[in-house]
Specification:
The chain is an alpha+beta fold. It folds into three domains: 3-126 and 233-351, Periplasmic binding protein-like II (D-Maltodextrin-Binding Protein, domain 2), CATH 3.40.190.10; 134-228, 3-Layer(aba) Sandwich (D-Maltodextrin-Binding Protein, domain 2), CATH 3.40.190; 360-456, Beta-Lactamase (2-Layer Sandwich), CATH 3.30.450.410. The chain is 41% helix and 20% strand. The longest helix is centred in the middle third of the chain and has 20 residues, at 248-267. The radius of gyration is 22 Å and the shape is globular. The termini are far apart.
Length: 457
């Protein structure tokens, strides 16, 4: 489906422009409408987890007591960022969270519409500096070895999403035109997963948490790791500028609540993953893959320079593939003044910091914290020890030896390199392609099974 058709499909949602923040509920309270994506778990600190913790409601209650007013929160759940943008432009959602590409589309469409429709990016939920929040999966028994093998086939994605953008950019590296050499099927992630399993689609390119979920459930294999693209990806919070200006105290309470939720997730990663899994129905092992202590995603509300630079890199790309109606002026769109105020004096210092996933973790059932390891060989020994102790292992995570992307250890390709240091004699790779590259660069290395690596580490 062309981007033009997608925009046209959204037009009915723009009718009846009621300003959400000024609407009153039946009990006379001022209603604040928050659009989120429950299953897009890189947004949980502004969505699923924040909602379950009740931090925003608690803060609004205190604000209401101080002002002699009543506030209520309406949470609206969507599969992707596109409908959130449509509702924001219609004045029906005040605050929303979505991925970097949808954020740019949001800002561009809002600038085109102008006036009270303008929006601002005000905080980040989580990020990955290499782009590993996105990935392309294929059926378990697919013979595809690289993206090049999808030429002439159908690929399911959500047009305009980070998953779509990742596929188009990555395909270019393989000499493919993402619009001509493959048939792009514009589908919601859950529909795309069904298409993949039925054979109607040869590949599924999606954002967090869909690649991990399908692999964890044994329904797919990771073909392309977004971390191989080496372009930062993140999700963030966007607000209607008219709402931010008219209800600044409410926005401050939301951002402070997001900070509270971020701190809670980082301090209680296992409990938070279990909460999100319970609320969404997603497998907890997949949730923790991304949101865990050493997860693929780093949760941090600050708007970092590398993330701003990534947006600047993405604007001309999205314009070139027809996703943006016009180039987006990032200067008025990216506004960290609100989060600075909510965050406090350490904002600049913390915004300058970045972090990457740990080498590995073992999650043993019944334990409140995971067992963390600094290198893959130590991790393998830890697995063997846990097995000897009789513990039930829920999941084992390990960083890719090339991209650093954390993935499921039992789904990885393991390689033994006799010439490597003792700590890296065994290494894991999230995709067969990256593993083959390592083999080519390290003569004498060989592929071994996960079970053999655990036994011999």
């Amino acid at each position: 489906m062309s981007r033009k058709i997608v925009f046209a499909a959204c037009l009915p949602l723009l009718a009846g422009c009621t300003v959400a923040g000024n609407a009153s509920s039946g009990d006379g309270s001022t209603r604040v409408v928050v659009g989120y994506q429950s299953k897009t778990i890189n947004t949980v600190t502004a969505g699923t987890l924040l909602r379950s913790l009740g931090h925003f409601e608690k803060r609004l209650n205190e604000l209401g007591k101080a002002e002699g007013k009543k506030y209520s929160v309406v949470w609206q759940d969507y599969d992707t960022g596109a409908p959130i943008t449509a509702q924001m432009l219609a004045g029906k959602i005040d605050i929303g969270s979505m991925g970097d590409y949808p954020l740019l589309i949001n800002g561009s469409r809002a600038q085109v519409q102008g006036g009270d429709a303008r929006t601002e990016l005000v905080s980040v939920t989580g990020y990955n500096l290499r782009g590993a929040l996105n990935g392309v999966v294929v059926a378990k028994d697919s013979k595809a070895a690289t993206l090049r093998d999808l030429k002439g086939r159908t690929v399911s994605t959500s047009v305009g999403s980070a998953g779509h953008g990742t596929f188009v950019q990555a395909a270019k590296k393989y000499g493919l035109d993402g619009a001509k050499d493959v048939t792009i099927e514009n589908q919601q992630p859950s529909v795309g997963a069904t298409s993949l399993e039925s054979g109607k689609a040869a590949g599924l390119s999606q954002f967090v948490a869909w690649p991990g979920v399908l692999v964890a459930q044994g329904r797919a294999r990771l073909l392309y790791d977004g971390g191989d693209l080496d372009v930062p990806t993140f999700h963030g919070v966007v607000v209607r500028k008219a709402f931010a200006g008219g209800k600044p105290k409410i926005l401050q309470e939301f951002l402070k609540a997001q900070i509270d939720a971020t701190r809670h997730l980082n301090d209680n990663p296992v409990r938070s993953a279990e909460s999100v899994a319970s609320a969404t129905g997603l497998p907890v092992e997949a949730v923790y893959l991304y949101n865990g202590a050493g997860g693929v995603s780093t949760f941090d509300v600050t708007i970092k320079k590398r993330l701003r630079d990534a947006l600047a890199h993405d604007v001309p790309f999205l314009k070139s593939i027809g996703v943006l109606q016009q180039s987006l002026d990032l200067s008025p769109f990216v506004n960290d003044s609100y989060i600075r105020q909510a965050y406090g004096s350490s904002y600049d210092a913390d915004a300058a910091k970045t972090s990457a996933p740990d080498a590995g973790e073992i999650w043993v059932a019944g334990e409140k914290t995971t067992r963390r390891f600094s290198d893959p060989v130590a991790l393998l020994r830890g697995v063997r020890d846990a097995q000897k102790q009789g513990g039930q292992i829920k999941a084992v995570y390990v960083a890719d030896g090339t991209t650093g992307t954390r993935w499921f250890a039992d789904k990885d390709v393991w390689i033994e390199n006799p010439e490597a240091t003792a700590a890296k004699r065994f290494q894991a790779f999230a995709t067969d392609e990256v593993a083959r590259r390592y083999l080519a660069a390290h003569p004498g290395s060989k592929i071994v099974s996960y079970a053999d690596a655990v036994r011999r580490a």
